[in-house]
Amino acid sequence: AEAAIGSAETEAKRILNDAYKTAEARKKEAILEAKDEIHKQRTETEKELRERRNEVQRMERRIT
């Protein structure tokens, strides 16, 4: 019985360690995806801002 309990405890520890490693890997993956999305959004926003600035400059030149 003690051997069975020891084996079960060892198996439980292994399962917990595997779950922890999987959770950490998923966490890192989610962080990377979020960083990629932030970069993409920043790039799009900067592009839109440049386009608006160019349009304002064109309008200013027409007015003058």
Query: What's the order of the H and E elements?
Result: H
Radius of gyration: 28 Å
User: Based on CA inertia axes, which overall geometry fits?
Assistant: rod-shaped
Main sheet specs:
none
Percent of residues in beta strands?
Answer: under 5%
Mean pLDDT: 96
Query: What is the count of β-strands?
Result: 0
**Distance between the amino and carboxyl termini:** 94 Å
Number of H/I helices:
1
Q: Structural class of the secondary structure composition?
A: mainly alpha
Runs in which pLDDT lies below 50 for 5 or more consecutive residues are none
* Portion in helices: over 70%
Report what the structure shows.
With 64 residues, the chain is mainly α. It has one helix and no strands. The longest helix has 62 residues, at 2-63. It is rod-shaped and about 95 Å long. It starts with a helix and ends with a helix.
Properties at a glance:
64 residues, mainly alpha, 1 helix, 97% helix
Concise account of the structure shown:
With 64 residues, this protein is mostly helical.
How are the SSEs ordered, and which strands pair?
Blueprint: H1 2-63
